[in-house]
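Pipeline run #58 for the internal structure catalog. This entry was flagged by the ingest filter as a single-chain record with no existing model, so it goes straight to prediction. Upstream metadata was stripped on purpose; only the residue string is passed forward. Reviewer on rotation: M.T. Logging verbosity set to normal.
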Amino acid sequence: MDPDLPRGAAGYLVAVPVAALCCLLPLLPLPAPVAGAHWLGAPVDWPKVGLLAFLHGCWESLAQGLPSPCLRLFRLLLRRPGPPGRPPARPDVNAFFPVLFAGVLMLPPAAAALVAAPAALLGAADPTCRRRQVWNGSQLALSAFTASVVFHRLAGPQLLLGSRFPAALLPGCAALAAFCLVNGVLVGAMRLLAEGPRRPSAHRRAAAVPGLPVLVHAAGGLMVAVLWQGPYGAFAALLALLPLSISAWVFAQGHRERDAHQATVQALVQAVEIKDSYTRGHSERVGRASVLIAGQLGMEAERLRTLRYAGVLHDVGKLGVATELLRRNGPLTEAERRAVEVHPVHGYELVRGISFLGEAHAGILHHHERMDGRGYPSGLAGEQIPEFARIISVADAFDSMTSTRSYRRGRPVTEAVAELERCSGSQFDPVMVRALVDALAVHDWQPVLPPPDTIRAVPDIPLGVPEPVRAAPRGVPAQGGGSVPTAGPS
């Protein structure tokens, strides 16, 4: 089981593949035909099943931007590794359904379910990814089995063989509805179990219905089935798949572009972490906390992805700040503090030419604004502050308070939440603070701690208590006795 999943979701991850295996039982020799459903134990055209399964695996690989099963088998036989930099398999992506739906229309239910198996078994090498890939293939097998049962119950095969249109469209549409319903219920249940019932986005995504691509793929599957059983056979069906292959290739290009975006963001974050040791891990945690807040608000998936980029890159402007100021343990002069506080502007200037960041630009520039207008760099107040910036401000302060710095140990989550609530309305948006509190009730937050010997050398000072006097650099008077910054610049 996946250790990152709740117990219910981990059990569900096992139960769905077991149910899919049960759907394959009719492929075993039956002692007697099933009453009223002779097609359950009908003879199976194994060459057709094998070819459809192979084609499904090939087009799934194309849609995910992965090498085809033929190429992987060829490399395995020659013991040649794949090219470096190849992106990993995406177990949550199965986007090419025409071949699978053609199997639903042409094969008995158990054989239609079997078509989904090779794509699941040949997809990933990582053990954790493999479990999810198997689950994904299993839920598609269950969906195909149910759709094929519905199609056979409505006498779809007879209408399809006789090319009786539009009468054959009724069982086809019913089979498509059954496929989408079962697929949606299985995926929605997994999301609810994994994310928790109190997360609004989980409810909305669980109730999501397939869109236009599935309808187009279903029409392609119907075309493949009609041509395959016509006078030209499988060759004509393969020609029908060629136009749809373009859409699969475009889909894969979209994933490659996202991989490139992620690599760009990671390179910028790594540059900041090398310069400022404190930010090591801080940027990723701020991105994660920002997504938790936005998830409670029901933000759509595309904006969530952009928000995570903004959270991860919120401190990228520190590349324009002197390294000595970032690493200093002592106090800063007023001029030095102003030099540090200009880092949001530096960050915006660094990333404003990266078009895919979109709303993230404003989040990076304004994440140190305050609701009362006393923040920087623009002194915006209330709703004038962009939504991304209000989210990142809360996430940044929360991780800063729960992380250990050179002058203060990280505080417990409950103490940090109490401080956020105290500053709610003046420094932070109350809506964002409440969203983070609700998210923490569902998701466990464990900041990465430094080595024990390092922690013992750091003072354990509660939030709001004056910090001890610290040594000042040469030429600067020693300072101390001021209140510990609870949610200031990180």
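catalog note: DSSP finds 22 helices and no strands in the chain.
catalog note: Confidence is low (pLDDT under 50) at residues 85-94, 200-209, 465-486.
status: ready for reviewer M.T.
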